[in-house]
Amino acid sequence: MAEPIWKDHYSNLGAYASRYFRIRVNSTTIYQGRAFRAASSGNLNIRINDICADYMAKKPGDGTMAFPVSFTVQQSSNGSSWTNVETVSFNDDWSYVSGFDPSSSGMAFPITGRVALNQPIYVTRYASGSVTATARYGSTTRSITLTLNTTGGNQDILKSLAHAGAGYLVFDCGANATYSGKTLTSVTIGGVTYEVTKFCPQYALFYKNPFGGYDHLLLEGNCKRNRAGSRDTFIADYNNNYDQREEWTFQNEIGESYTMNTGLLTDDESSRMPYLLDSPDVYLLDLTTTRKFVPVTIATDSYTIQDFKSNGCTMVNYTFEVRVSQNQYRR
């Protein structure tokens, strides 16, 4: 079983005072260095999971990296003749949950599991091959085969999805909105059921969860779009006999952010909010206008995990900020 990348792994290079070592993936060396034994230690041990995490964090999005990733540790006395120490496999798992196995438990852990009728559902998997989705239209069911995608595109989100696990599945709710005169009410993919809402929120956030997969959250509360800018100006000579400008603007830098509100959540749904709020990779989808995936950063650094009891025996909701990753400039 592959190890989670969050858990420290030490490779024992032997009872040496110092040793050259390198870490390889297939035939490619990703790191090489020299280690020195601590005075209190009998053997020379090196911690490799941080080194491997840097390599795994790359997002080629071209299907060249499949999880789990196997790393071979080698050691040498002179830096030219190498012997194998061990081979270790890591999953892209930052959950800090001991014993979790994404290959059997899956990678999809949505906060609410609700979807809009005009949005895509992306499901990342460690298992390869196609998957049969069960779409429900009231009492009518329909089986739809979803093919695993292993390559990305120009969009960052597709690169990220292709980089997760073995690849990703796509179910387009809009393309499958009706069947036999009935409207889509839910769809089950890989054991996870997504319920279609009866209204159309404007925004959804797609994010990397701590288990290495990608989920989404439909924002069902009131959300606001904010803009803040800064101006670079300079003072020029002018003639006050005329209506001439003294202060000129060289450049405006404009940053855009959103105030997001989740809408009401159950305690179970609330317990999964850290999956989004702590995520390093988040995308905003506007379901009503641009319909483009915009890379954003969670700008709320601290929050309280709420539940029904601590919230005064009322259902909870979260308000937080996301910041668009690219600023705009005007001259």
Q: DSSP helix count?
A: 5
Q: Helicity, in percent? A: under 10%
Beta-strand fraction estimate: 35-45%
* Low confidence ranges: none
Mean pLDDT: 91
Number of strands: 24
Number of domains: 2
State Rg: 25 Å
- One letter per element, helices H and strands E, the order comes to EEEEEHEEHEEEEHEEEEEEEEEHHEEEE
What would you say this structure looks like, in words?
The chain is mainly beta and about 325 residues long. The chain has two domains: about 5-90, Immunoglobulin-like (Sandwich), CATH 2.60.40; about 105-225 and about 255-330, no CATH class. It has helices spanning about 50-55, 100-105, 155-165, 265-270, 275, and strands at about 5, 10, 20-25, 30-35, 45, 70-75, 85-90, 115, 120-125, 130-135, 140-145, 165-170, 180, 180-185, 185-190, 190-195, 205-210, 215-220, 225-235, 245-260, 280-285, 295-300, 320-325, 330. The strands form six sheets. Strands 17, 18, 19, 20, 21, 22, 23 and 24 form an eight-stranded antiparallel sheet that branches. The radius of gyration is 25 Å and the shape is globular. It starts with a strand and ends with a strand.
